[in-house]
C-alpha cells in the first residue's frame, strides 16, 4: 500500500504546483507583447519593471512603456 501511495502523492503535488504557476502577458504602448513565466518585478528607484521572457532574455521596461500587465 505504501509503495502505491507515495507515487500518487508525488504526482498530485506536482500537478497542484503546476496549476498554481501562471504566466504574465506584458503589452507595451507600441504594441509589443512579452510573455513572462514569473511576476514582473517593479523597481521603484528606476520606475521600471524587470522580467525574463519566454526566450530566456532579461527585459527591463520603464513604467511609461507598459500599457498592460495581465495574468494568464
From TrEMBL:
Q: Which Pfam families match?
A: DUF903
What's in the keyword line of the UniProt record?
Cell membrane, Lipoprotein, Membrane, Palmitate, Signal
This chain's protein is named Uncharacterized protein DUF903
Where does the signal sequence lie? Answer: 1-18
Report domain Lipoprotein YgdI/YgdR-like SH3-like positions: 24-71
Question: Do you know which PROSITE patterns this protein is assigned to?
Answer: PROKAR_LIPOPROTEIN
Gene3D superfamilies associated with the record = 2.30.30.100
Database matches in SUPFAM superfamilies: Sm-like ribonucleoproteins
Per the record, the domain of life is Bacteria
Which InterPro entries does the UniProt entry name for this protein?
LSM_dom_sf (IPR010920), YgdI/YgdR-like (IPR010305), YgdI/YgdR-like_SH3-like (IPR047807)
Amino acid at each position: 500500500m505504501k509503495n502505491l501511495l507515495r507515487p500518487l502523492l508525488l504526482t498530485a503535488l506536482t500537478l497542484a504546483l503546476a496549476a498554481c504557476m501562471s504566466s504574465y502577458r506584458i503589452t507595451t504602448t507600441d504594441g509589443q507583447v512579452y510573455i513572462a513565466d514569473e511576476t514582473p518585478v517593479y523597481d521603484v528607484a528606476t520606475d521600471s519593471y524587470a522580467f525574463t521572457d519566454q526566450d530566456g532574455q532579461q527585459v527591463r521596461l520603464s513604467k511609461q512603456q507598459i500599457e498592460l500587465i495581465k495574468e494568464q
